[in-house]
């Protein structure tokens, strides 16, 4: 498979008055064309910041301070802001933002908002753009007549469909979906996931799905990266992560999910709280909460080990072997 | 012989609700009044009946806007019911306190249950010591300007528990210990923003339990927390339940979670219960088309799912609770209705009651039982 995106040792820090928050601290992964990757982790683990870094929209006081984002063979961190905006953002990499409810402008109709994408990026006239808008709405399962509706006239699920339409408007090869279904009910969530799956197959678009919900990632992702405190602790194919998790954090996360089907086993939890990213603990960042903690874990950062082809774990338990 | 659901109390019943309705009036403009347009209502809770036995963890599940939170709040009289009965079995200490105040509560059956719906607002205060609520959002339900000590002391002061400061200090310390915020001294002087989400939710639980209630409405107590710590809070709640002899009305939108902690469950749709029964039976053998759709929609952590599209046996979207469709309110979204012409006339005309499909398992759908027979029973 052709590689579309390669992230190497990405570092995004926030320079706050209290100190430097290392929100993303050396994240690496790669994504093939037409592949879907899930990026999972608890709140505050840096998964959204990773997403905003990919589209170069990290809000101040945040800054990308290191690493490479190689997209279609080119390091997009070397481009000027203006070049990136004109050539990449939305044309090549677009995003479905978290909380569709608030991401739409309340004083414009959804048709106007969708048309703007074509008018700005492709220089179409309003009439030309509107005919494209109708096609887009049709594609995401909304009656094109709704183009004249304002966001408040639509349900949450429909607003999310509009957000998806907007992200796919220019046929970008990569779409980042940041918690696309939070605040939606399960039935609507399942409809939105079905829509994403269908469009992903039709257009062969690559998707990075960011969510804390591992069940949702299993619905669509070919690859999974598990983040903890600014770092990727485990990375592999969906089968490797779900059926053969190797990092104690991944294992505990999977055992903390209540399941609707099958045996009821006792739910587990991870004691403690994630570390403060201004002064993360030395050694492995998960060590204070880990039940397999050894001496070395609190002293030295664990190496990344390939336990089987394509399955990478960052844990001392595997370094011994 | 068909059997319809009827909340009949017995010795073990702690709370039962009969045909409870909570409607919120919509604001009327001056033109509405002049044109004599009748007032309109949001039918948040629209004829709900259920029964909770002592020691139950009774789940109330459904999508947002189905009326589950309003039901919980109405049961506690935090919201006033429009009509219906809320039968509750009071402890002696509550009856004593009311007697002291010269109030005689309305007893409605042979088991000494009283109708909470009829208690005038000025006599509600003693009830707060019996029934409490755990709120959903630990980031919004704690006053940011009070220390944890002040937050927990406040109910004691209001209800005049602990005559001296020292006594109250001890009670607060014990409450913090009970929710495993130890050592308590370390947490008392902190403000909510200095705690993590999980710790805050422990404070919310401690506050609900500090008056030693016996009935708790827990409104999505873990939905705002990270998945990795939810189980810890739930286990704490179950441990406290056993230790203090509590009964929970557990409101949740997460059926998988409900499966782990509730023993009975009611599925709500648009202000009404559509399916009711022991949790395992309802979730393993769902009978209402809505319950089936909800269950089909829940993702599970199985990577094989990515190769298939989920089949969702439901159409359209939830209608507004202002104009409830006539007949069965689920009909506009129901696929069973579409495929079963012989029941359509009933679905269109009459709201189906809760009909027994197996022991203690009730479903509100015309697919079950003989419609004519049920209509006769309803007329009686």
Domain tally of chain A? 2
Largest sheet of chain A: 8 strands, mixed
Main sheet specs of chain B: 8 strands, mixed
- Give the structural class of chain B: alpha/beta
User: Which descriptor suits the 3D outline of chain B?
Assistant: globular
The strand order across the widest sheet of chain A is 6-7-8-3-9-10-12-11
Number of strands of chain B: 12
Summarize the structure.
The complex is a heterodimer of chains A (321) and B (380). With 321 residues, chain A is an alpha/beta fold. Chain A has helices spanning 47-54, 81-88, 100-103, 110-122, 126-139, 156-168, 186-203, 214-218, 238-243, 248-255, 316-319, and strands spanning 3-16, 19-32, 36-40, 62-71, 74-75, 93-96, 174-178, 206-211, 223-228, 231-237, 304-308, 311-314.
What does this structure look like?
The complex is a heterodimer of chains A (321) and B (380). With 321 residues, chain A is an alpha/beta fold. Chain A is built from 11 helices and 12 strands. In chain A, the strands form 2 sheets. An 8-stranded mixed beta sheet of chain A has the order 6-7-8-3-9-10-12-11, with helices on both faces. The radius of gyration of chain A is 20 Å and the shape is globular. Among the domains of chain B are: 74 residues, no CATH class; 89 residues, no CATH class. In chain B, strands 6-7-8-3-9-10-12-11 form an 8-stranded mixed beta sheet, with helices on both faces. In chain B, strands 2-1-4-5 form a 4-stranded antiparallel beta sheet. In chain B, a hairpin with a 2-residue loop joins β9 and β10. In chain B, α4 crosses α5 and α7 runs parallel beside α8. The model of chain B has no long low-confidence stretch (mean pLDDT 93). The interface between A and B is large, with 48 and 39 residues.
């Amino acid at each position: 498979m052709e590689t579309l995106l390669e992230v190497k040792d990405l570092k995004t820090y926030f320079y706050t008055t209290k100190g430097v928050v290392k929100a993303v601290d050396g994240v690496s992964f790669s994504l093939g064309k037409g592949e879907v990757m899930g990026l999972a982790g608890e709140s505050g683990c840096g998964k959204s910041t990773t997403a905003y870094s990919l589209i170069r929209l990290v809000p101040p006081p945040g800054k990308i301070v290191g690493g490479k984002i190689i997209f279609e063979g080119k390091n997009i961190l070397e481009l000027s802001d203006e070049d990136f905006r004109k050539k990449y953002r939305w044309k090549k990499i677009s995003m479905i933002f978290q909380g569709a409810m608030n991401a739409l402008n309340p004083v414009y109709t959804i048709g106007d908002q969708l048309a703007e994408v074509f008018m700005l990026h492709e220089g179409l006239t309003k009439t030309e753009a509107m005919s494209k808008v109708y096609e887009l709405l049709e594609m995401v399962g909304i009656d094109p007549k709704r183009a004249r509706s304002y966001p408040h006239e639509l349900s949450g699920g429909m607003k999310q469909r509009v957000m998806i339409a907007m992200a796919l408007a220019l046929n970008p090869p990569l779409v980042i979906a940041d918690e696309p279904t939070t605040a939606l009910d399960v039935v609507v969530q399942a409809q939105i996931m079905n829509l994403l799956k269908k469009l992903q197959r039709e257009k062969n678009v690559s998707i990075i799905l960011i969510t804390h919900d591992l069940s949702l990632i299993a619905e669509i992702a070919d690859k999974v990266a598990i983040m903890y405190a600014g770092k990727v602790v485990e990375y592999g194919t969906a089968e490797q992560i779900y059926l053969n998790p190797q990092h104690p954090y991944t294992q505990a996360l999977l055992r903390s999910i209540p399941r609707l089907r099958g045996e009821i086993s006792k739910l587990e939890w991870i004691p403690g709280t994630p570390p403060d990213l201004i002064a993360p603990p030395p050694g492995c960042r998960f060590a204070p909460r880990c039940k397999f903690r050894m001496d070395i874990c609190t002293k030295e950062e664990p190496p990344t080990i390939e336990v089987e082809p394509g399955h990478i774990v960052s844990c001392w338990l595997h370094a011994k072997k | 012989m068909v059997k319809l659901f009827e909340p009949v109390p017995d010795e073990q019943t702690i709370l039962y609700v009969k045909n409870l309705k909570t409607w919120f009036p919509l604001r009327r403009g001056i033109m509405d009044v002049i044109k004599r347009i009748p007032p309109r209502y949001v039918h948040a809770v629209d004829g709900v009946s259920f029964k909770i036995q002592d020691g139950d963890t009774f789940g109330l599940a459904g999508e947002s806007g189905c009326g589950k939170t309003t039901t919980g709040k109405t049961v506690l009289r935090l919201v006033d019911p429009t009509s219906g009965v809320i039968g509750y079995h009071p402890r002696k200490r509550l009856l004593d306190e009311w007697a002291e105040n010269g109030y005689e509560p309305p007893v409605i059956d042979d088991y000494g249950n009283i109708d909470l719906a009829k208690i005038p607002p000025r006599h509600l205060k003693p009830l707060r010591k019996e029934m409490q609520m755990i709120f959903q959002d630990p980031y919004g339900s704690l006053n940011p300007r009070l220390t944890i000590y002040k937050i927990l002391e406040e109910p004691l002061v209001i209800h005049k528990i602990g005559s001296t400061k020292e006594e109250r200090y001890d009670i607060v310390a014990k409450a913090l210990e009970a929710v495993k915020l130890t050592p308590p001294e370390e947490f008392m002087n902190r403000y909510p923003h200095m705690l993590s989400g999980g710790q805050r939710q422990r404070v919310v639980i401690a506050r609900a339990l500090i008056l030693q209630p016996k009935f708790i409405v827990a409104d999505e107590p873990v939905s705002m927390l990270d998945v990795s710590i939810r189980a810890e809070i739930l286990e704490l709640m179950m441990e406290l339940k056993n230790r203090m002899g509590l009964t929970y009305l557990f409101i949740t939108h997460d059926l998988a979670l409900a499966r782990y902690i509730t023993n009975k469950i009611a599925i709500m749709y648009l202000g009404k219960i559509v399916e009711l029964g022991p949790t395992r039976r309802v979730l393993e053998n769902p009978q209402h088309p809505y319950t089936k759709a909800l269950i089909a929609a829940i993702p599970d952590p199985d990577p094989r799912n990515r190769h298939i599209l989920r089949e969702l046996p439901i159409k359209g979207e939830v209608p507004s609770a202002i104009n409830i469709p006539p007949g069965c309110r689920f009909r506009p979204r129901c696929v069973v209705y579409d495929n079963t012409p012989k029941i359509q006339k009933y679905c269109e005309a009459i709201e189906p009651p809760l009909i027994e499909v197996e022991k203690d398992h009730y479903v509100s759908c015309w697919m079950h039982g003989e419609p004519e027979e049920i209509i006769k029973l309803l007329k009686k």
